[in-house]
C-alpha cells in the first residue's frame, strides 16, 4: 500500500516564499510508486488553502486569502500516514504545528515539540548548548518590554559585548531582521527592527576575525549520522537575505577545505548538539570557524533547513551518496519509525 503523505508549505513566517520553493522540489522528488502526496499551502494569514488555491500558490508563489483555519483541517489530516511540515520559522519550525500533529496522533517529518521549539529560539538554543559544553559566541537576551521601558539597560548589555555585534530576532530565519551593528550609533535602529519582528531579541558578539561559515547536515532519530561539512563563501559583509537568495551571490563548497581534524570536530559537535536539543529526523547545524585562532563556534541549529534541490542540506547528503529523492524518502521513513 502506498503511504499517504501530506506536505505542508508556505506558512505564516517571513520565510513563506522560501518554504514554497522547497516544497516544489520535494513534491517533484517523492517517488510516486511509494507515496500518494497531497500538498496544502498555508497562507500568510494562517489559512489552509483548498487544492486549486494551493496549486496556484505553488506555481506562482502567491497565496491568496481564504481557506480553512488550521483547527478545521487538523482533523482531516488524520487520513494521512505522515505529514511533511516543510515550513520555516515561527508557526512551522517552532513546535506549534508539531504540537498539533502530536495531539492528532499523526507521524511527521522532523523534530518534535521540544526540539523544534528550543532550536527555533536562538537564546534557548544557546542556553542548552552551553550546558552541553558546546563553544559559542558571547550573547545577551533582551525582551521588547525592556527595550520600551528601560532602553539604557539594553544598550548597556550591548556595550558589554563590544562592537561590532549582531542583533537578531530570537525566533526567525533566512537572516530576516538581522543587523550587523558596527558601533553604538547603529544600535537603536537595529533593535527597533528586530523588536518589530519578535518579542525576544538576541545580541551576539562577533568573532574577532570574519569567520568562515561551515554547515553540516544531521540525519536520523536516536542514532543520527552527520554529513560531510560544507562551506559558504560570499562577498557581502555577512550572509544576509539577499546573499542567501540571489543567484550567484554565494558559493557552496562541498566538502569544505578544512584540515581533517577540524571537519571531524565539526561533525562530532553537530551530533552532540542534535542530541542535546532532542532533535529528530533532520537538522542543519551551522558553525563559524575562525582559522586565525583555530576557533570553532556553533552558530545555530535549523530543524527544517532550506530544502530545494540546490540547498545546502540536500547537497551535503548528496555528497555522502544519498540522492535528493532517496533523502526525502528516508525522512518519511524516519517519521514513521519515530513513534
Ligand atoms: P538561517 O537562514 O540559516 O536560518 P538565521 O536567520 O537563523 O539563518 P543566523 O544564521 O543566526 O540567522 O545569522 C545569519 C548570518 O549572519 C550568519 O550566517 C553570519 O553570516 C552572520 N552572523 C550571525 N551571527 C554572527 C556572529 N555572532 N558573528 C559573525 N557573524 C554572524
Ligand atoms: Mg536559522
Ligand atoms: Mg532557518
Ligand atoms: Mg543561519
Q: What is the fold's blueprint, element by element?
A:
Layout: E1 3-10, H1 16-29, E2 35-42, E3 47-48, H2 51-60, E4 68-69, H3 70-76, E5 82-85, H4 96-104, H5 113-120, H6 122-131, E6 139-143, H7 144-149, H8 151-161, E7 165-169, E8 179-181, H9 187-195, E9 200-205, E10 212-220, E11 225-234, H10 241-245, E12 250-253, H11 260-276, E13 281-290, E14 295-302, H12 312-319, H13 324-338
Parallel strand pairs: 1-2, 1-5
Antiparallel strand pairs: 3-4, 6-9, 7-8, 7-9, 10-11, 10-13, 11-12, 13-14
The protein binds adenosine-5'-triphosphate (ATP) and magnesium ion (3 copies).
One magnesium ion (MG) binds next to strand 14.
How many domains is the backbone divided into? 3
Helicity level? 25-40%
CATH superfamily of the largest domain: ATP-grasp fold, B domain
CATH class of the largest domain: Alpha Beta
- CATH fold name of the largest domain: D-amino Acid Aminotransferase, Chain A, domain 1
Low-pLDDT parts are none
Which percent range describes the beta-strand content? 15-25%
Order of helices and strands: EHEEHEHEHHHEHHEEHEEEHEHEEHH
Number of helices: 13
Structural class: alpha+beta
CATH architecture label of the largest domain: 2-Layer Sandwich
In whole angstroms, the N-to-C terminal distance is: 20 Å
Bound molecules: adenosine-5'-triphosphate, magnesium ion
Shape: globular
Q: Give the mean pLDDT.
A: 94
- Work out the number of β strands: 14
Radius of gyration over all CA atoms, rounded: 20 Å
Numbering strands along the chain, what is their spatial order in the largest sheet? 12-11-10-13-14
Largest sheet: 5 strands, antiparallel
Amino acid at each position: 500500500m502506498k503511504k499517504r503523505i501530506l506536505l505542508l508549505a508556505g506558512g505564516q513566517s517571513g520565510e513563506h516564499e522560501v518554504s514554497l520553493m522547497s516544497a516544489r522540489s520535494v513534491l517533484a522528488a517523492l517517488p510516486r510508486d511509494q507515496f500518494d502526496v497531497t500538498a496544502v499551502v498555508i497562507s500568510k494569514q494562517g489559512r489552509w488553502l483548498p487544492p486549486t488555491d494551493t496549486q496556484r500558490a505553488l506555481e506562482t508563489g502567491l497565496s491568496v486569502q481564504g481557506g480553512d483555519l488550521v483547527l478545521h483541517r487538523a482533523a482531516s489530516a488524520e487520513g494521512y500516514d505522515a505529514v511533511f511540515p516543510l515550513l520555516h520559522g515561527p508557526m512551522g519550525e517552532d513546535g506549534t504545528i508539531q504540537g498539533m500533529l502530536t495531539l492528532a496522533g499523526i507521524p511527521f517529518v522532523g523534530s518534535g515539540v521540544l526540539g523544534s521549539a528550543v532550536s527555533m529560539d536562538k537564546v534557548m538554543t544557546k542556553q542548552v548548548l552551553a550546558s552541553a559544553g558546546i563553544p559559542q559566541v558571547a550573547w545577551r537576551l533582551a525582551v521588547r518590554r525592556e527595550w520600551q521601558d528601560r532602553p539604557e539597560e539594553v544598550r548597556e548589555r550591548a556595550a558589554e559585548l563590544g562592537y561590532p555585534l549582531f542583533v537578531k530576532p530570537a525566533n526567525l530565519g533566512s537572516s530576516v531582521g538581522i543587523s550587523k551593528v558596527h558601533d553604538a550609533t547603529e544600535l537603536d535602529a537595529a533593535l527597533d527592527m528586530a523588536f518589530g519582528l519578535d518579542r525576544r531579541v538576541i545580541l551576539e558578539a562577533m568573532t574577532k576575525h570574519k569567520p568562515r561559515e561551515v554547515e553540516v547536515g544531521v540525519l536520523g532519530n536516536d542514532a543520527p549520522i552527520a554529513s560531510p561539512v560544507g562551506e559558504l563563501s560570499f562577498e557581502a559583509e555577512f550572509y544576509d537575505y539577499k546573499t542567501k537568495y540571489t543567484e550567484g551571490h554565494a558559493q557552496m563548497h562541498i566538502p569544505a577545505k578544512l584540515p581533517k581534524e577540524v571537519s571531524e570536530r565539526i561533525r562530532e559537535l553537530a551530533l552532540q548538539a542534535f542530541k542535546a536539543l532532542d532533535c529528530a529526523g533532520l537538522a542543519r547545524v551551522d558553525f563559524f570557524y575562525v582559522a586565525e585562532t583555530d576557533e570553532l563556534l556553533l552558530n545555530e541549529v535549523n530543524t527544517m533547513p532550506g530544502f530545494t534541490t540546490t540547498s545546502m542540506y540536500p547537497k551535503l547528503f548528496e555528497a555522502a551518496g544519498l540522492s535528493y529523492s532517496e533523502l526525502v524518502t528516508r525522512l518519511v521513513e524516519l517519521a514513521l519509525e519515530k513513534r
